[in-house]
Amino acid sequence: METLRRYMSKYFILFRVKTLMIYLFPVVLGMAVAVQRAGSVSWRKILFAYLSFFAGSFFSSTLNFYADVEADRLHNDLYKDQPISIQPFVTGEMGKLETWLIFTLTGLACVGFGLLAGYGFAIYMIASVAILGILYSHPWFRFKEKPILDIVTNAVGAVVLLIAGYKLVSPGTWPEAMPLLFGFIFSSTLYIPSVANDVPFDQAVGFRTSGVVFGAKRLLNAMIPLCVLLTIVAVINFVLPIGWPFKLFFALGLPGAIIFTVGMHLLFVPPHIRFNTGLLVYPIIGLFLFYFVYTLNKAF
Fewest CB atoms within 10 Å of the CB: 180, 192, 232, 292? Predict the structure, then answer.
C-alpha cells in the first residue's frame, strides 16, 4: 500500500494538476465557441479529446521536469502550484526505462485519442504538445531558456489549444483572428509572473530567461502595456459579430488581467511575488466549469 501511494504521489507531481487546468481552459473555450455556432457535438468526441489532452499534458509536463532538474533542485517551492524541489527526477525516483515508457505511452495516447476525436483536433493537439512540450523544454531547443521566446511559446501554445478545441466541433471552419490575438496577449500577461518568480533559480544555473535578461521588475512592468493593448483588442472584439462565449471571456478576462497585473506589482517583494497561485487558478477553473457544462449539455 505504501509503495502504491509513493507511485501515485510521484505521478501526481508529474501531472501538475493546477497547471494542467490553466492549459485545459482554452480547449474548452474553443469547444464552447464552436458548439454555440454548430449547435451540437458528439460526447464521444469530447471524451477522446480530453483523453488526448491529458496524455499530451502529461508528456509535456514530464519532459519539462526531466529537463529542469538543475533549477528545480535549487527551488524553495514558494509561490508554486506544488513543490517542485522534490519532483521525481530530482529525487532519483524515475529510472530510464520508466521515463521512456511514460514518454512513449503518453505520446502514443495523445496521438491515438486525438485521431479518434477527429483529424482536425489531432493536428492542433499534437502541435500544442510540440510547442509547449518539445520546443519549450527539450534540450535540443529549450525555448524556455531564451528571452521573449519563453513567454511567446506559452502564449502561442495556448492559442493552438483553443484552435484544437474549436476544430473538434467545427473542423471545416476557423475562429476569428481578433479573439485569438486577445488570447495570445492574455496568456502572455498571465505567464510573466511565473518567469519573474523563477529568476533566482534560473540565474543560479545559468538560464537566460526573460526574467534573467530583463530583470523581474522590468518584466512585471511589461504587463502594464500588455493590459493596455489587451483593452484595445477587447473593445474591437466587442464590436465584432462573434459569439457570446468569446464575449463572456473578454468581459471577465480583461478585468481579471488588470487586477492580476496590479496584484503582482503590489505583492512583489524582491526577489519574489508573494502570492498564492490559487488566486490565478481557481477563477480559471470556475470559468472552465461553466464552459464545460455548457458544451456537455450540447452533447446529449
Answer: 232
In eight-state DSSP terms, residue 106 is: H
Q: Alpha helix (H) ranges present in the chain?
A: 2-15, 17-38, 43-67, 69-74, 88-91, 96-117, 119-129, 136-137, 149-169, 177-197, 199-204, 210-214, 216-221, 223-239, 244-266, 278-297
Do 250 and 182 meet the contact criterion of CB atoms below 8 Å apart? yes
Q: Return the domain boundaries, the chain.
A: 7-297
Specify whether the CB–CB gap between 223 and 189 falls below 8 A. Answer: yes
How far is residue 30's CA from residue 168's CA, in Å, rounded to a whole number? 9
**Residue 263 burial (CB count, 10 A):** 15
DSSP for 53-69, please give it.
HHHHHHHHHHHHHHH-H
Q: Look-up: residue for cell 474553443? A: 30
Q: Report the alpha-carbon distance of residue 118 to residue 115 in Å, rounded.
A: 5
Give the tens place of pLDDT for each residue, 84-128: 778 888 888 888 899 999 999 999 999 999 999 999 999 999 999
Angle at 51 between CA 49 and CA 54, to 5 degrees: 110
Decide: 276 and 204 in contact? Cβ < 8 Å: no
pLDDT 10s digits, 136-193: 999 899 999 999 999 999 999 999 999 999 999 999 999 999 999 999 999 999 999 9
Torsion 57-61-62-66 (CA) sign: positive
DSSP-derived pairing of the beta strands 268-269 and 272-273: antiparallel
Residues 6+ apart with CB under 8 A from 190: 22, 257, 260, 280
